[in-house]
Please model this.
Amino acid sequence: MSHKLKVGELREAYLLEEDIWRVFTVVLSSKSAKSSTYKYALMKSLIENLYQVNERHELSYDQLAYSFTKIYWNLIVHHQLINQNRGKIARVVTIIKEVQDANSIPPEFVFDKIDDALQLKLVSKVKATMKENVYGALYGDTRGSFYAFDHKKETLTLNPKVHQFMLNYQRLIVNLTNYHMAAMIEQLNEVPSINYLLGKVESIAKRSSLSAFERVLLTYSKADCFYCQKTLTGVKRETHVDHFIPWSFVQSDHIWNLVLSCNRCNTSKSDKLPERAFLEYIIKRNHSLIEKKEDETITNLMKNYKQKKIVMLYDYSIKNGFDTIWSP
Model:
């Protein structure tokens, strides 16, 4: 009954790679009891927040609940994949459907289009469900070796060795988690819901729009293309917000990894990594954002950012196969 635990201490501080792979294999295989897709969603939430950990390798329950809620909103509302549990309806489904119905939200609404106050209310309810059914369950499957957690402090602390392992093999872990999550959802749902299912699972963390980031960047940066320095005139479709390190690797949106780009550079760069010289430019840009301490919005967006994070992100993306280097 590990899912009922309120506190879980880290049982093994040091693990070899083969030990971690062995545990991952168990978690993803039929040897791990899965009455719902919760464990996969928590794994995806951890991956989305790998670069948001603080110096103690901690993640807050709010960070994880936001990712977890976004995953299920886009599965349940946007793709109508209602069955996420064997047997009775999963609690997270009930929470999300109640909010959708009470506010008459149409199915085409992805999570980031919802009103901010409603998002917070929804995340708070999902966070309570995660405390009851999620953290302890995956903790038990990993034999307490992957992370510690504390419901009172509302923090999850990753084993540093596991964090490093997930960075090293991020792309492979993402693909494995997506595949097994899609396979389970396919068992629980019927056609036509399961059409192109793997693609739906792969894209559930992606924002529909980065316009909010565009407004911030235009306020505090020159209206020039980050790559070719072309002036961005504001003509429709000319200004793009680009993930400096490709989204397909990062799997999340952070302003410190976003830049303004012209249409030509954004299209040409696509899913490639910019040449390393641009890394120094984005580090300087981020330093200038950090200095805007009078702006609470910027302060919150840059929370947990450290220069070493984007350097680490760049290096790990190459290790994970993003080794086609692009320049304008």
User: Anything to note?
Assistant: The chain has 15 helices and eight strands. The longest strand covers residues 239-243. The two ends are 55 Å apart (CA to CA). The chain has a mean pLDDT of 88.
